[in-house]
Design brief:
Length: 296
């Protein structure tokens, strides 16, 4: 059943560390190399989240699309890496396992910066119509490959392009402290719909598609970095006024890693850090804080 009520008028007090009014959580999605490609055995090329709005999938290599994704791993990732490490900002990476396998240097840099590396699945594809047994197999492959690449199994999960089975399969796997495949709230909450199947309530740390750089490559989105900056600041300031909220920001190396957009991210981070009212944390830190404060 769908839960359309949530916390209602009285959300719980998250009691963020140091009396912060907002927990700010930055996600860097690492997908480049895990997208649809005939090189990966897919039926066609990628057509999602690139500078080419309205691109079509082709039953062959799409060289322009491939190069747009390659920018993310070759240049954009490193620009954002410098931006975050210079400010000592802790972030979470949503890492597609097959993509990380293709760039060990990036994975090493993530670990060296003490970033959380959560799982973004085995492939960056749409699982809406993927058979349940294949999706279950891909979840297992993602964990196995992720563990080999990073030295530890992932504790956070975000598929992104989910199927109707994803949440249940993740809960049944049982090893994730949190699932981020939700956009339903400004605070963590528990999904109890699969408890009756013998599982435990799954902690959900919701994500964001609005405070997300993907809107820079969508027709309903931002056309300039300054628009993105203003939206992020407005979001932060509203949540700061309310107090006791969480703000997620979603980024991609091939999008926000572009020069004219990275500056907007830098300016937003400086605004947050200078405000003195934010707990800038990794997603796993927020999950552990919630599990301790409000056990299932």
């Amino acid at each position: 059943m769908r839960d359309l009520i949530g916390y209602g008028q009285t959300p719980p007090n998250p009691r963020w560390p140091n009396n912060a009014r907002v927990a700010v959580q930055i996600v860097l999605n690492y997908e480049e190399g895990g997208e649809n490609s005939v090189l990966n055995g897919d039926k066609g090329s990628e057509a999602f989240l690139s500078e080419m709005v309205g691109a079509q999938s082709h039953p062959a290599r799409a060289m322009a699309m491939e190069s747009l994704y390659e920018y993310g791993s070759r240049a954009g990732f490193w620009r954002l890496h410098r931006l975050f490490t210079e400010r000592q900002v802790p972030i979470t990476v949503f890492g597609v396992a097959s993509a990380m396998e293709m760039n060990p240097a990036a994975v090493e840099a993530m670990a060296r910066a003490d970033w959380e590396i959560a799982s973004h699945g085995y492939r960056w594809i749409d699982y809406q119509t993927v058979p349940e047994e294949i999706e279950r197999e891909h979840i297992a492959k993602a964990i196995q490959l992720h563990t080999r690449l990073t030295g530890a199994r992932p504790l956070g999960w975000y598929q992104g392009r989910t199927s109707p089975n994803t949440a249940r399969l993740v809960a049944e796997e049982g090893g994730f402290l949190y699932d981020a495949d939700s956009y339903a709230d400004d605070l963590p909450y528990y999904d109890r719909q699969f408890v009756q199947n013998g599982g435990k309530a799954q902690l959900i740390v919701p994500y964001s598609l609005d405070a997300n750089d993907m809107k820079m490559v969508a027709l309903n989105g931002f056309t300039e970095g300054v628009q993105f900056f203003r939206y992020l600041v407005d979001t932060y300031e509203q949540l700061r006024t309310e107090g006791g909220r969480m703000m997620s920001v979603g980024l991609h190396g091939r999008i926000a890693g572009r020069p004219g957009r990275a500056i907007a991210v830098a300016q937003f981070l400086d605004h947050v850090l200078e405000s003195g009212d934010a707990w800038v944390a990794r997603r796993i830190d927020i999950a552990r804080h919630w599990l301790e404060l409000y056990p299932a």
